[in-house]
Amino acid sequence: MKVNVEELSQVQRRVTVELPAKEVDKILNKVYNKLKNSVKIKGFRPGKAPRPILERYYGDQAASEASQELLGGSYAEALKESGIEPVAQPDFDFDPPKAGEDFVYKLTFDVPPEFEIAEDAYKGFELKEPKLEATEEEIASRLDQLAERQAVLVPVEEERPAAIGDVVVVDYQAFDGDEPLDGGTAENVEVDLGANKSQQEIEVALVKAKVGDTPEATVHFEDDHPNKSMAGKDVRFAMTVKGLKSKVKPEMDDDFARSLGGEFETLDALKERIKADLEKMYQEQKDQELRRQILDQVRELGEFELPTSLVEGELEDMVKDFMQRLSQSGMDPATAGLDPMKLADDFRPEAEKKVRAGIVLGKITEMEGVQVSDEDIDAEFEKMSERTGQPAKALRDIYNKNNAMPSLTAHILEEKTLQAIKAGATITQVDSAELAAEKSTAEGENDS
């Protein structure tokens, strides 16, 4: 076997592999012998058809099978001999093998870029952590939200106008101009004022309305509205107020805490749980913000050409993830007229950033000697178990079954590298609004 390597660019190689005719004949003979004993050709007894006849009827099939065997038997060895490790599946280029001739095929693939980073380049990053704390006001707000869900609607007996927080009961008829819309009639509809569950124009029209009033509101519906009779139109709603209800929230006491399922014996225990949940959420937000800043600085450390296959793979994942999230939210991407090619163009700058940061992180991982231990993997499954409620062993079995352990290991390796960088950084706490403004300004400058 002869192996020749061409450097097409900083991150692309072409390997030409030449297998001798003797090896080609050996494989072709093997393929045709198998065919001779398995196929039926009119006029010949099984196993007696001569080679020229087999070539006439099954030449393409034999060439295909021989190609796969020749490639499979030499591909890994050729890469090992060349000393090159592709970052993605290579592109193969070859003509079908022929008896008595050498078999030549070419592999074109991307390789990791070669670059250097100074040992102290990623140490001493200056990071800003948002000040996020679970305040008494936030805890009280969460408690009020819980009480809101358990509020009881009580009819308002006194004659008074509707106010924010009330529920107004209405009948309505929808009109396109002066023409009633098909299916545009409803009775005893409850509109929760201030909850943003109804169109804003309707809520505004009902504020200060009394039972018996007939307010109207005009609402513009976009072209993609699911109700085709309303899509793209200014629809007038003629309403009749039939009733008014107020919300009566439960008392904030131990009984209220126990009513939430028996997990909490006292109101103080419920408050502690809310505080712990808020602190956990804020810590995740802090970690994400520090991660973003580290990646922003890390990707500036290496100047190199990006492997196209890695960028295209990242783009494919981003588009697929975006489409899945749309579908999960109830929107059909096809109906919305989304073009995957256009999405890929829009996502390309972000994909290139992710790939560049990932490559530099990989370099830092090597420099720091970061490794993933069995204990790290066990800990990750325990975290996943806590999040999902599934046993850690069951999750491990799923990952093993789906060959997902390498991706999990890569994720842990990346997180440990980020932690190593974070450990050597200078972290300053700043107001979260100030940090958000800085981030917005920076994104605006990048876009321009």
- Could you describe the largest sheet, including whether it forms a barrel? 5 strands, antiparallel
Amino-to-carboxy terminus distance:
53 Å
Q: What CATH architecture of the largest domain would you give?
A: Orthogonal Bundle
**Overall mean pLDDT:** 92
Q: Do you know the CATH topology of the largest domain?
A: Trigger factor, domain 2
Any idea what the CATH superfamily of the largest domain is called? Answer: Trigger factor, C-terminal domain
State which percent range the strand residues make up.
15-25%
Class by SSE composition: alpha+beta
Entry keywords:
four-stranded antiparallel sheet, Alpha-Beta Plaits, Chitinase A, domain 3, Trigger factor, domain 2, 3 domains, alpha+beta
Question: Can you describe this structure?
Answer:
The strands form three sheets. Strands 6, 7, 8, 9 and 10 form a five-stranded antiparallel β-sheet that branches. The protein is built from twelve helices and eleven strands. The chain folds into three domains: 2-110, 2-Layer Sandwich (Alpha-Beta Plaits), CATH 3.30.70.1050; 152-248, Chitinase A, domain 3 (Roll), CATH 3.10.50.40; 265-447, Orthogonal Bundle (Trigger factor, domain 2). Strand 1 (2-9) and strand 2 form a beta hairpin. 49% of the residues lie in helices and 20% in strands. The model has no long low-confidence stretch (mean pLDDT 92). With 448 residues, it is of the alpha+beta class.
